[in-house]
Every structure is written in C-alpha cells, then in structure tokens.
Amino acid sequence: SYTQPTITDNGDGTYTAVIAVPPPDPTKGSAPYAVDFTASIPAPQMSSPVQVQLTNPVPRIVGPLHTSSPSGSTPAQILDANGRQVILEGMNALDTQFPYNNDGSEPLTPVMVGNLYNWGYNFVRLELSSDLLLQQCPQSGSSFANPYYDASYVDKIKDQVNLITSYGMYILLDMHMVEGNCQTLGSEAGGTGADVLPSQQEADAFWQRIAAEFNGNPLVGFEPYNEPHVCEGTLYLTSSYSSPCSAGTASAQAYVQGGTVSTGATTSYAAAGMAEMYNDIRAQSTSNLVFLDANGYASYPESFHYMAQEGMPSLSQTVYVFHYYHCQASSTNGTANCDTTTPEYCASVQALTTKNIDPVSGSLWPAPVVVDEFGWPEGETTYETGPTSTFTVAGNGLYINNVIAEMQQAGVGWALFAYGSFGPNPWQGPYDTILTPNFPAGHEYWTPSADGQAAINGIQAQAQGQHLNCTNPPAGDG
C-alpha cells in the first residue's frame, strides 16, 4: 500500500509525483521513505489524480454583444445577449508576426489563453497584418517586399479565434500593420507599420475577407484600422508620434474620407478612410461590433464629433476606441519619452473619467467607449520629457493601477499592451506584462510582471463589485 501521491506541475509538460511507501522488509524498520519519479501526462488524456480547475472570477461572455444608447447620466454600454452590461477587460496579443520572425513572438497557446482566463480576463485584441493575409508585396517587385509569408496565415487566425472564444472570451480582430500598396513597410517586415491610413486596395480586400470569414461569430469584433493619424490638407506618411495634426474639421474630413497619401517625391497611394472600411465590414457583417479608433493615434475625441458632417455613414453596433499613453518607449536607448513629469499621479490620469463625453458638445457619446490599448514602458531605465528633463518613477505597476482605477470609475473597458515576456527574445520589450524565469526555451510564461499583476488586481476587484483606488507615488517620483 502507499499514500496518495503529491504531484507537482513542472511547467514543461511533465509532472513530478512523490509517493510514500512502507519498506518491503519489516525488519528494516517501519518509517516510510519517498520514491521520486517523473511521468509525462498529455493534457488531453490526463488520467492522473491531477485536476486543472480554471477559476475565472468573470462570467463567460454570452454573445452576441450589442450596444445601448446613453440614458440620462448613464453612458452607452456594451450588453450581452441577456441585456447585462459587459466591461471588456483584456490584453493585446501580437499575431502579425508569428511564425515568420526571430524575435520570440508566437501565437497564443492553450496554456497562455488559460492563464488569461484563470486571471479573469474576458477580452483579447489580436493585432493582424494586412499584407501577411493578402500576400501581395513580394509579387510587386518592390524593395518593401515582405519576406514572412505563410499560406496558412488565415488558418492560424481561425485557430486563435476558436481557442479564445472557447473560453467564453471576446476577441477583437484589429488591422494593425499595413504595407501601403507595397510602398511602405509594416513592422512585421522590419518597418514602422505606422501609415496614416491603409491603402484602399489592401483595406477593401482585408475586410472583405476577414469580415466574411467571421461574420456572425457572436464573440468576434472588428477594428477597421489601428491608430489612424491624418492631418488637414495634403495627407502624408509619418511614423512620428508628434505629428503637427489638429483635431478640427479638416482632419476629420481626411479621417472619414481618406485621400492620397504621399510616400515619396514621386510615389503615392489612394488611402481608404474610416467610412470606406466601416462599409467594407458592414457589407459582410451587419451584427458584429465595430471598434472605431479616433484620429490622432486614437487620441482625438473631436474626430467622433465631426465625422457625421464629413460623410461618415449612420453607425450601428459601434464602439469608440481611444489609446492612452503618457510615456512612449524608445526602441534604441532605454529612454521613455513622456508628456509630463508626473505621469503616475492621479491628477495626470483623471482625464480618463471624461472619455465618455463629447468635448465639443458636452454630451455623452452615442456609443460606448473602450480604451483598447494602453501601457507603461516598465523596462526603460530613464524617463524624460526632453533631453535635459529627466525624472524618477515609482514603477512597480503604479501607473497601470491608476489608469485602471480611473477607467473603472468611468465604466470604460480596456486592453493592456501587451501580453509578452521579458524572455531571451522579448517581443514586446518594455511593455511586457509577463516575466520569464529561466525555464527551457519554448516554456509558456505564467508569472505576471508588476504591470500585469496590477491589471489582474483590477479585474478581480471588479468581479467582487469593487474597484482599484488611485494612489499617488511617493514624493519625488513621477
């Protein structure tokens, strides 16, 4: 006879079981001794005493989702099939690159999605590439040819959608990287991926295919284009986050209608505006939610106010999207460029509580609001508002805590950037939210960073009918 084994998950597909058994020869004593052995247990055929229990504190989403109009002082909301409010709380996941590059990015695996579910997330924003789907650039003869094509890219997207929705989580398909008719280079191919607007050719083809493929899936939403940033007058290509664009009607017209984007002295392409992309999606899907980014890198609320008069069609089942960053990471020198020396202070993030309000009219927006990208460059060593103005920060998840606290107060959904790791080949760099201990290569990462833990704390507080509290950093920190 022997006692019930104690089984430990080693995290790499194996389990270690320790079983105490009595010695076979009574003359040698009666004290039990331990016998250690390791056995591989394939998860789908798990037959050991080990039980994996996912204890997500957030109920599974019951689709299809739909939107309500504002009522009195209550903002517009996202509702489930039973009419209950849904606060989307999620993560950004980069799917533009796998498995084509060597920077460590990878599709979400069942273990990784299980982590998100077990921590309480109900939402994943999947960042996609138009050119990896359409695969047009190598045939163009352009110097911007994309070297990472795979004929199974659509199948991989389907796998990700099926995996995430199988947990009752909502997935948002975001056209994140574009190639500008092969005149620009998306980041998945080594460029910036920050075109002001996508070309008509790629936007039309992308959404006709993606919206048709996932039309009617009750847990799928569509985001026409990540961070449009068009200016009044002549449209131009830029990857700068300090472009001299205004938030007025001229920019709103370009945002809605598109136009000609210059990519060089003699090259240009016809860009699709948000109206064209919205119509592309609605031609294939009339019921799935559409998440519409504001102009100005998803930061100009005025674009929503003026878009109807600039030719935006009547919208239905639409969510207004903002992005929120006080500090931008540098890709080269470990320095974060910030717009204030006090980014972690409550006073700096309180603007989030007004995201439901049209700043021009003072009225509530006709659509619910989600901040589907925000983050903190935790991995940087220096924070500055300029080369001669550096400051210290508290870090340790404080900024994420305070931003989520303000969004919870406003009833705004969110998605943190991004679900990545600080591993040997980090694919989100200073915005990583998962720590990678020294596990074997290919190990799925389980331990949240300070920023990731702050988000988990917010989800679990919300599930208990509570919310995070905004807390100022110690004196002297930002």
Summarize model confidence as the mean pLDDT: 79
Fraction of residues in helix: 10-25%
Give the N-terminus to C-terminus distance in angstroms: 62 Å
Radius of gyration: 24 Å
**Strand arrangement, major sheet:** 9-8-7-6-20-17-14-13
The total count of helices amounts to 11
The major β-sheet equals: 8 strands, parallel
How is this structure best summarized?
The chain is 22% helix and 21% strand. With 478 residues, the protein is an alpha/beta fold.
Q: What would you say this structure looks like, in words?
A:
The protein is an alpha/beta fold. It has eleven helices and 22 strands. It is 22% helix and 21% strand. An eight-stranded parallel β-sheet has the order 9-8-7-6-20-17-14-13. A hairpin with a 4-residue loop joins strand 1 (6-9) and strand 2 (14-21).
Record the SSE blueprint.
Layout: E1 6-9, E2 14-21, E3 33-40, E4 66-67, E5 78-79, E6 89-94, H1 110-119, E7 123-129, H2 130-134, H3 153-166, E8 170-177, H4 200-214, E9 220-223, E10 235-236, H5 249-257, E11 258-262, E12 268-272, H6 274-284, E13 290-293, H7 295-298, H8 302-306, E14 318-324, E15 327-329, E16 335-338, H9 346-349, E17 369-374, E18 382-386, E19 389-391, H10 398-410, E20 413-416, E21 434-435, E22 447-448, H11 450-463
Parallel strand pairs: 6-7, 6-20, 7-8, 8-9, 10-11, 13-14, 14-17, 16-18, 17-20
Antiparallel strand pairs: 1-2, 2-3, 4-5, 11-12, 15-16, 18-19, 21-22
Features:
4-stranded mixed sheet, 11 helices, alpha/beta, 8-stranded parallel sheet, 478 residues
